[in-house]
Amino acid sequence: MLSVARRSGRSVFTQTKRFISTEVLSLRGGRSSVTGVVATVFGSTGFVARYVVNKLGRVGTQCVVPHRIYSEDRGRHLKVMGDLGMIVPMPFHARDPESIAECVKESDVVINLMGKQEKTFNFDFFGSNVEAVSTLAKISKECGVPRFIHLSSVAADEQSESTWLRCKALGEKAVLDYYPNAAILRSNVIFGEEDKFLNNMAKWARIYGYVPIIGSGKNIVHPIYVDDVAEAIRACTYDDSYDGQIVELNGPEAWTLPDIANWVRETCWIAETSRIRRFPDLSEYLPESLKHLSPHNMVGGITDSYLGLWPSDVFGPMSMLGIRGDFRALNCNSWTVNKRLPQIDSFDIVPTKFTEIAPEYLRNYRPGGHFSVLHKKEDVL
């Protein structure tokens, strides 16, 4: 259990528009207050982490934000998310135990948001989602860090055909080996202003004139807003009652990828100038020995091989929808809600519909760009 001083950090939930818990202290403050919690956020330069660090730093939590060695500028935008000295950038390498120990030795909680969706020169899917995660958990345990929060995927499965999803499941297992009481949050497909999901659909439709869908297109996803994911992580940070639980973070609506692609095309006003190109899954109609000849397997395999030649840290072709170099990741039925597990309402969070948020940043892909709404009004008049 956390000490009384540290548990007072739970009161920070009263400082936002959302109310996470009814059992909070009356302490009020802001970024100049001190919650008494030190959190190390690995993956701090990524998509989800900027929202998490902002939510922690704005209420006076000291955040250690590890960054790649010689890449300190990549985390510069995080410094304004907390008061002076409360956002602490530190260099580290995922295969250097000493640098990891320096980042976590003073921490009350380690939050792992690492889980790259593409291969690089130094790390493949296993290296970034299993090997690195296992090292973080091991070193954190050795340094005496009492709590560990891990962000995983709803579709994580050791038996999945997707390499990325298998690695996500193995990453969870590695964390639990060292922290049996770790809080594990499994998110669905995440959308937000910097996402590689809706933005990719809009880019394909705007630049190439079509949105590629590999597979049957019948599988269901529940897109979740990145701010809702960050809110859940913040709740776990200040409340240890979530330790030892696996909680799913699903969005409020069920969509198929073709339906989402159609909505994106209509939102960007390019439905007439773009289309959806499908590479169907005919595996169920083919014998086992010929399943590799199914159009989606052939195109997906070619795509994965092609993208594998262009690691994400060098210039290369735009990634296909989903995980870069793993077409099977979104082409499965594992993104549905598991009702046997606690859901996002455990945090008293009402998930946001992407149809309410996404138009704000997808309008940049409309003909005319940011001012397209004004031009359209003039045309109507």
Characterization of this structure:
The radius of gyration is 21 Å and the shape is globular. It has helices at 4-7, 47-57, 97-104, 125-142, 163-178, 198-208, 226-238, 257-267, 295-308, 354-357, 359-362, 372-380; strands spanning 38-42, 62-68, 87-92, 109-112, 147-153, 183-187, 190-191, 210-214, 220-221, 224-225, 246-249, 255-256, 275-279. It contains twelve helices and 13 strands. The termini are far apart. The chain has 381 residues and is an alpha/beta fold. The chain has a domain at 4-191 and 223-253 and 336-352: Rossmann fold, CATH 3.40.50.720. β1 (38-42), α2 and β2 form a beta-alpha-beta unit. 32% of the residues lie in helices and 15% in strands. Mean pLDDT is 85; it is low at 1-27 and 377-381. Strands 3-2-1-4-5-6-11 form a seven-stranded parallel beta sheet, with helices on both faces.
